Amino acid sequence: MTRGPTLPAHRLPPLPAPLDAFNAAPDDEAGALLLHCLHSPRWSHRIAAHRPYPDVESLLAAADEAAYDLSPEDLSEALADECLPPVPDGTYSAAHTALSAAHAAYEARFGHVFVIYLGDTPPAESLDRVLEGIRSRLTNDPEDERVVAAEELRRLAGQRLAEKLRGAGQCRSAAPPRGATRPNAPAPGK
């Protein structure tokens, strides 16, 4: 029996990569994504305005560079929408008390929430790292601490943006990545 010609393999069109979707997104959507990563409208507009980016690394480099250029007002605005990293599930109440007390002392001294980039810190060690960070940074003078906080925000923004664009996580205030926004933070663009 003779068979007819074989059909070519069925190929689906490629799905757009997160970077392609970001590059093609309307300005307000791209800006909203960026505001979830760093709560600075000026930073967000600057990054969105330079689209398209050829690759994720170029976008991350641009975001990093723009974060270095935050004015004191931009930094204050970004810090206003930040909060402490979440405490790991199952943490005993004494740890919550210690963290609350340390954070209250930090906020009283510097006038803004404590931010820290936890990077690859294992969740089981994050509480110790946060407490250690707050306690050691409480000795900073306010201007030195603003420089440290700006650096931590820059690193957090890069982490959040990379997670969003690589599909490894989401940057959203309702369920933040470690070191992200507070659970009851106002929606971006408030």
What's the overall average pLDDT, rounded?
Answer: 82
How large is the count of helical segments? Answer: 8
- Helices and strands, in order, run as HHHHHHHH
Return Rg in Å: 21 Å
Summarize the main sheet: none
Low-confidence stretches: 168-190
CATH topology: UraD-like
Distance between the termini: 71 Å
Named at the architecture level, the CATH assignment is: Orthogonal Bundle
The CATH homologous superfamily corresponds to Oxo-4-hydroxy-4-carboxy-5-ureidoimidazoline decarboxylase
According to DSSP, the number of beta strands is: 0
Instruction: Estimate the strand proportion.
Output: under 5%
Number of domains: 1
Tell me the structural class: mainly alpha
The level 1 CATH classification is Mainly Alpha
Helical content band: 55-70%
> How would you sum up the global shape?
globular
What would you note in describing this structure?
- The structure is a single chain.
- Helix 2 (27-37) crosses helix 3.
- Helices cover 56% and strands 0% of the residues.
- It is globular.
- It contains eight helices and no strands.
- The chain has a single domain, classed as UraD-like (Orthogonal Bundle), CATH 1.10.3330.10.
- It has 190 residues and is mainly alpha-helical.
